[in-house]
Amino acid sequence: MGPQHRDQSNEHCALDLTASENQSTSVDVSQCVNGSVLKPYGTRIVTLEKVLEVAREIGLEGLTIKEVSRRLRVTPAAIYKRVRSKEKLEALVVAQEFADLTLPEDPGNVREYLFRLCRCYLEFCLEHPGFVEASMFHADSRERRLSYQKVLDTLMRYGYSIGVADDLAASVENIAHGLYVYIRRMYSAVGRTDFVYRVGGYRITIDQMLAIMMSPCIDGLLACSDPAFEETRIFEELHRGLPEGFVPPLQQDDSTPEVAPGE
Amino acid sequence: MGPQHRDQSNEHCALDLTASENQSTSVDVSQCVNGSVLKPYGTRIVTLEKVLEVAREIGLEGLTIKEVSRRLRVTPAAIYKRVRSKEKLEALVVAQEFADLTLPEDPGNVREYLFRLCRCYLEFCLEHPGFVEASMFHADSRERRLSYQKVLDTLMRYGYSIGVADDLAASVENIAHGLYVYIRRMYSAVGRTDFVYRVGGYRITIDQMLAIMMSPCIDGLLACSDPAFEETRIFEELHRGLPEGFVPPLQQDDSTPEVAPGE
Predict the structure, then answer these.
(1) Residue B4: partners with Cβ closer than 8 Å, 6 or more residues away
(2) Does residue A138 contact residue A60 with C-beta atoms inside 8 Å?
(3) Which residue from A11, B50, B60, B176 lies 20 to 30 Å from B88 (Cα-Cα)?
(4) What are the TM regions of this chain, as residue ranges (chains A, B) (predicted)?
(5) Given this model, what pLDDT does residue B28 score?
(6) For residue B175, which residues of chain A lie inside 8 Å, CB to CB?
């Protein structure tokens, strides 16, 4: 999803106003071709890169087309020429933020790797407020993420098949998202994120608490993901272990092959 | 958080317009005291109950003060007399929706109970779009929820102390929220929720997939929550099991007692 229809001939007209954002209106008029600086809400053309840059400065939580247009001093219509809707803009921002994700090094131990991965996702979500909320409503493009491929590669070095590696990685993300919702609520309740739990004779910090909360889930995942087993066998075993009547029995796939989501 | 400052003397003036919502403007004028029906956006007084009823009809996803005022045919100011902000209104709606949560029966097996509880939370979130998103930004009032108390009571019948029961119940909610984020994304990708995964020779429905995904997490939780142990001992064991250097060592609490969040 690169920039589309970029009108190169007009690019010299796209003023960089971000530097002067906090300095009232000190714009270099000599750079301006058609004097549109005098009409601050003119129909100057902005590039998609510029729109995205400003959108990321605003952050996902307060992102509106109006705010982008205000900061770039163009009409909302000029923004809509680059991105069709707020949702499209959000999707582009989400994709870019994810591209910046710095994965943990592989510490040479799969359990520790999953812990570090889970904490990495969680910290990323906390550092990008609105990311989980916005990315919820956008197509899951995990398989297009370069970082996700790296995670799969790391897990496959431990002997997991691609299907099992995919399930493990997706589940670790789910755990991180659940913990993110938890922290957001606690933050609303307490008004800060450095709160301390008192358990018995201990003061447990939020960082310790989160590690302790992710621990049984990650150990449970590992216990159910023997690298010697194929994905099908793991699914069969997990299904067999469900409470009786909880979900219908597994159905053989006798339909013509079709691309499943995520493939 | 019950209705505040309800002006009983004005209640007869609050017209029930919800029934005529789809029928243009057939209002019983005889019920109206000061003829404000002729001025559809007048300053008639609405009760908090009415505001909440309409807010729940709209649903959390499209909820704005403007939309509530439009449906009740009063000015936004009349709504702001009842609820201070959109956020306060959201919090009230969240609290009411949660009050309606129907918990699963205890099937007499704690593992099966946690599975049913997790699915119950997940289905509730799916049936109330916007609930997770909105409740993320409101103080966690779990301990004030009647339904949450019932969950704790059920778990304590299995021998768990209140602290361990609380951790189990909170973790099951976290798992459900993580799965909710997952489904929302899959829905965005595929455009429907009845999608089928093809794993080996099986067609796995979304319902089966979700049960299979929650399975290792719930089993992991149970494995780490021996009812014979006190919460402190469980925390100590989980902390000891973390990768070396992942979080700082547990600190003794030698400060003066203070109320921790959630107590």
Answers:
(1) B48
(2) no
(3) B176
(4) none
(5) 38
(6) 174-175, 178, 217
Cβ within 8 Å, pair A246-B107: no
Which residues of chain B, if any, have pLDDT below 70? 1-44, 139-144, 255-263
Per the CB < 8 Å rule, is B174 touching A171?
no
- Contact: B251, A179; criterion CB under 8 Å: no
Contacts of A19 (CB under 8 A, 6+ apart): none
DSSP type of residue B71: H
* Res A50: pLDDT: 93
Give the CA diameter of chain B.
76
* Prediction ipTM score: 0.71
Enumerate the residues of chain A whose CB falls inside 8 A of the CB of residue B201. 232, 252-253
Q: Which CATH architecture has domain A39-100?
A: Orthogonal Bundle (1.10)
- Strand order of the β-sheet with B202-205 is A251-252, B202-205, B196-199
Query: Residues of A34-71 as b/e, b for ≥16 C-beta within 10 angstroms?
Result: eebbeeeebebbbbbebbbbbbbebebeebebebbbeb
Instruction: Write out pLDDT tens, residues A93-122.
Output: 888 887 778 899 999 999 999 999 999 999
Phi and psi at residue B104, to the nearest 5°? -70, 155
Q: How far, in Å, CA of B13 to CA of B30, rounded?
A: 11
Q: What is the structure's pLDDT at B156? A: 96
Protein fold of B101-240: Tetracycline Repressor; domain 2 (1.10.357)
